[in-house]
Amino acid sequence: MIKFAKIEDAEREVVKWQGDPSSIQHLGDRGNSVFSFLNSAGQPQILRFTDPDFRSYDEVAAELGFVSRLKAADVSVARALPDRDGQLLSRSRCSSGELICSSIEFAQGLEVQIGSSHWNVEFFHEWGRNLAQIHRASSLFNSEGPPEKRWQWDEEILIARAEHLIPVDDTKSREEFREVLDRCRSLPRETSNFGLIHADHAPQNFRYEPNQSRVTAFDFGNCCYHWFLSDLAISLSTIRRKENREVIKDGILDGYSTVRTLPNGYEDLLDLFIRLRVVYVYLSRLHLWAVDRTSEQQAELVALKSLVHAKAGWNLPDQARET
Questions:
Q1: Angle in degrees, 0-180, between the axes of helices 266-288 and 228-237, rounded to the nearest 10
Q2: What's the whole-number average pLDDT of the chain?
Q3: How far is CA 207 from CA 28, 123, 278, 313, in A?
Q4: For residue range 139-193, what is the model confidence (pLDDT) as tens digits?
Q5: Dist CA 215 CA 249 (whole Å)
Q6: What's the gap between Cα 247 and its chain centre?
Q7: CA-angle at 212, arms to 211 and 216, nearest 5°
């Protein structure tokens, strides 16, 4: 069970970044506890708390290091901000126990959602282009020196604990997990197709500035060593239920292709990586809701399990399209 911070923890820690404790707002708890605050210049900034049992101190440091390298490579990302002592992260004694505290630049722009006037081909294009820019920089980092201390995709805590997380009687989910894992492990790894990825590049984790046609990515908390196409598949997995999903997909792929060339056979690989993503999301909810599930959480678990059983890639079963 992941430990989270409370607002009084944020009020205490925010002074390290010369923030106003009275301006703290709780934005949510998932992999991290996330708060916003106003800094000494009156500008919004992000304060984040991470459970070291979920992501270690070295792993969080490596995440922030990766983001810093991307920013230095002129990739549009929200950078990590040092505290008054020049540190990017620190250990914080919080009400739930020790957590890792860090602060991130507030990404300028809009969170574009379906129905917005900006939910259009130009936006989809920039979505794909920003992701490709991350991958282009990451592929260069592979040959520039010591790698960041992030995990390989199949060492991630949820993947590593999958056999424990999936209920013993859920035979179909166990079979799908093993099949997808084996197929992925058989794929070639090269500096051009494998490296550090964002691992959750979707509208909730980036902002869009229409006047500048610019996407700024943030929340690299899941970044790991993986195939770059998996990152693209994760983006596509978030729009499979949209009515104009093929238009969105084409826009994202077109934008991506302006920066990086898609490899031969990419459609089949995207399908495989979407299946892996479905399993991963199922595992994440099993982990997050290990105890005291609400009826809504239980219903979501049932729906996710049905997608795992259906081996759902890009094409969803009919019942999943209706939910």
A1: 70
A2: 94
A3: 17, 10, 24, 27
A4: 999 877 666 789 999 999 899 999 999 999 999 999 999 999 999 999 999 999 9
A5: 17
A6: 23
A7: 120
Length of the chain: 323
Place of tokens 């790991």: 224
Alpha carbon 7 to its chain's center:
24
Q: Which two tokens stand for residue 199?
A: 């691992």
d(CA 198, CA 219): 8
Q: What is the pTM of this model?
A: 0.92
Q: How far is CA 127 from the centre of its chain?
A: 14
CA dihedral for 178, 202, 90, 64, sign (positive or negative): positive
* Two structure tokens written together for 145: 């020196």
The sign of the CA dihedral 280, 284, 290, 292 is: negative
DSSP 174: H
- At 23, which amino acid appears? S
The pair of three-digit structure tokens given for residue 239, joined into one six-digit string: 């729009």
**Residue 92 host element (H or E):** strand 89-94
Exposure b/e, 151-185, CB count within 10 A at least 16 = b: bebeebbbbeebeebbeeebeebbebbeebbeebe
Alpha helices in 142-161 (DSSP H): 157-160
304: tokens are 């996710």
Name the token pair of 93. 């004694």
Q: H-helix or E-strand containing 76? A: none
